[in-house]
Amino acid sequence: MKGALEGWRRNLAVLWLGTFIAGMGFSEVMPFLSLYVSELGHFTRGQLTMYSGLTYAVTFFVIAIVSPLWGKLADRRGRKLMLLRSSLGMAIVIGAMGFVHNIWMLILLRFLQGLCAGYIPNASALIATETPKESSGTAIGILTTGYVSGNLIGPILGGVLAQVFSIRLTFIITGILLLIVFVLSLTLVHENYHPEPQKADAETGSLLSQFKNPTLIVTLLVSTMIIQMGNNSITPIISLYVKQLMHNVGPITVVAGIIAALPGISTLLSAPRLGHLGDTRGTDRILVFGFVFAILMYFPQGFVSSIWTLGLLRFMIGISDGALFPTVQTLLSKNTPHRLTGTIFSWNQSFQALGSMLGSLLGGAVSNWFDYNGVFIFTALSLLLNFIVVLIFIPSMRHPFRNKA
């Protein structure tokens, strides 16, 4: 028993570092991707906008389509294999981006990047299956801080590397970092996994028919999409909103960067504690708290007149993220047959990618229709609708303080 406990803790430590480096590697190239696009040709402003949007979107589009296929393979062949596939593939593809001289080659590599994605959900699936059920919420909460903190540091590191060296060299450095993740995963991650090919091949029903409560699974997946949509709807306009609140005076880019980073900082601080509370007090309670708190924090962001108030509210949003994302993953884990864990976590990634796409598109559209503050109100209303759907289709959420899930 002691050895098993040491095993899952070792996996958690290694995969925390792996997801940290992966999150950092994925995010550090994002701030200057559109600048890199502009270096690959002589484009008009309209062409640059179109190509930049296509370059960003193609990866999320591919992830949304292929994640379930990789998840099914993970359940048949093991999650560690998927960790190796993803980290090695991403290392090669992102490193190769530093050598392109044509926009279509970059778009092709971004397409391949989507095919190679899956490190973080498979890390979550492996932790969920290798960790004792009574500690799974805590473990997933801790794992969440790995890629969240990596995502926080990535843009800053990427900006420094691009400034000191070049954008091209930054892609190559990112590829090297992901190669380190591959080596760590290959040598230090252990999975006690025994595939059941005969049982898997015998399954003739649909995926949902293999769950005791398919309605709960669908509701949680849709929740992942809407929560991520809410987060991403803010991303395209946050710097412009900061500029408006500062009346175009002062270090706008620095302040915008800090405001953008605040939710990640509070998620980093809150996710492990909220995961532990979910294990001890009930995951239903944490999910309800996350929805209510997010709704209450998003609405006033559309009416602030001070950058300090916006900063405080953005920090609070990170607490709701620390409650919502890990708790949804924990509930998926606890309500999924062991053999389908990889499949369902990949579906979760697919819905998250759809949320990222929808958020970027709807955020831009809503800001054009109703100005920047309308985006925050739209996000709050989306989460309110999501919360109502959760209450309707997951009965235990209606009385969370009577349950301990």
From TrEMBL:
Transmembrane segments: 12-36, 48-70, 82-101, 140-165, 171-190, 249-271, 283-300, 312-332, 376-394
Subcellular location: Cell membrane
Gene3D superfamilies (UniProt xref): MFS general substrate transporter like domains
Membrane topology of this protein: Multi-pass membrane protein
Keyword annotations: Cell membrane, Membrane, Transmembrane, Transmembrane helix, Transport
Top-rank taxon, per record: Bacteria
Protein name, as recorded: Multidrug efflux MFS transporter
InterPro entries, per database record: MFS, MFS_dom, MFS_sugar_transport-like, MFS_trans_sf, Tet-R_TetA/multi-R_MdtG-like
Keyword Kinase carried by entry: no
